[in-house]
Structure prediction request, 585 residues.
Amino acid sequence: MTEWSSKTVQELRDELRSMGLSGSGKKADLVERLQESEEASIAIDAEIVEEPPYEGVSGVLARARTFGMRNAGRSRINTIVVAAIIIIGTSGGGLLFGDDIARWIRGSPDYELIEFDSNQTRSFAQGLVDLGHPEWEGRLSGTVEEENTAQSIKTNFSNSGLPSILDEFEVPLYYMGNQFDLMICQPGNLGGIIGGPTPCSIADLNRDETEYAHRVDYVVQGYSGSVNIPASSNVQVVDLGMGNESEEWGSAGNGIGLVWIMDGQEGQPGTESNTILMGRAQDNSLRGLITINARQNCDDLVQDDCVPYSKSLDITQFDEKPYDIGFVMVSKSVGETIVDQVVNGDGMLQFQVDVENQQDGYIHVPCGIIEGETDEKIIIGAHHDTVYNGQGAVDNTAGTATVQEMARQMALVKTELGEPKLTIYFCTWGGEEEGLWGSSEWVQKYQSDLQENLRLYINLDMNHVDAQRNSGLTLQGNSPDDVRHIEGIVSKFSKEHPDLANKYPISIRQLDSEEMPYNSDHAPFVYNLYEGSEDEGEFGKAMLCYGSGSSEYHTYLDTMDRFNEESLMVSGIIYGSLVRHLAWD
Prediction:
């Protein structure tokens, strides 16, 4: 008898699922289920041993037929277990064991591909974009725009015939104000006269001002604080290079620090995260922090320039939230001008940022549900919030629209095939851009149930391929069985949709759990699922999709103008067909 109790929970679940049995429940339930299956298999094998001997492959086939007739009413898995302990021998001594025989008996799964309406998906996407901020266009978490988005998604689930729920969580957030200004002032020629006007003040009538456009030339970074520095104060602006620890951060105290966002060279590290940079700014009493984009989207969107983008920081790493430090990113050209005219010239910088980061707020998680025969569940998810400064058509309106269309199609499958064996959840997450808040809080709330019953989480974040910058899609995950299913489904997809398969190359990767990136809503399902439990250190199973060519992400240019709904068919059909196979077949 196998010592099942020494196995990890994930090993027990994988073993049960390989047998076609449910992998839900606590460890004791899993061990008991495996022991019962093993005892049944041994009893059946003992019964078969009494049969006359059979020779060679034909004998094995005959034994399998005899066994099948005698035990026609018993579960198919016992047939596989018995066959797995039979040795197929030849006079040359060749052997075939275990998994090979099981696969031979089962044969290749006959996958059925789901339907997917790209036009309906675009309609879902446009509906989300239309709910954005009237000026800035985004659906920032904690705002009425994000709440309305969650309510709209819940309604769409209901309209597709799915029971739906809406969870609300209170988490640390930041709120955009109304006063934002970035300007370089060149003092008038009377500014230096004793008794004359203060340089760059209102009275300095000969001053020359260059105003920069919010969202286009500069973008506020997540959890920035508030600051108002008029040009006339002539605040010190210090170039801190790439902002590494070795830079003289203290020299920018009570002033503004400039940090260049760049990749490292010759084995040196690149610019560190917003969290680390803001921490250094706080430790050295800076009033403002300006990062200069010299790394991402350069020349892709604007010739000879790099467009600024908004990123957040991990606010949980701060004992005191940096409420009085303004934090923005500027384009490369604006950063070069600040260095030339302010750091190395006579210009004076005006810098105003209006953000409230001291309050908690509410984020939302709507879910549509197809109830199955068991509590074992598959969850398909995407985040519906965006950065504040753009429509977020690709990040992640694309993924959220795909989840809604998959839910609609799965409701039709249920109408055709009836209740599935597994329960299916379709969820969209608020708070992703601020730190995976929605998925993290949801996993924590339902942790006990998910530990016992989560079969697989599927994440769709930027599963979009730009029509011109197309390098295909990557489907990857830490679930070996599901990676093998994806390989089979992709093979069928390529035959049934050759034009799509040829147009959008598909890469499939199996990752170790420790290799799974911690950059989107799959992370809490993989890494946090077993926190604080007796099985802490175990990993949840997840599959992901990454698209390509989305240089506009997190910028004001991430709009529906470049939205390519056709590309969403690839991940929608393939992952939807995986769910169909697991839940119904």
Summary: Confidence is low (pLDDT under 50) at residues 48-98. Residues 54 and 62 are 8 Å apart (CA to CA). Residues 176-356 form a domain with the Glucose Oxidase; domain 1 fold (CATH 3.50.30.30). The chain is about 35% helix and 15% strand.
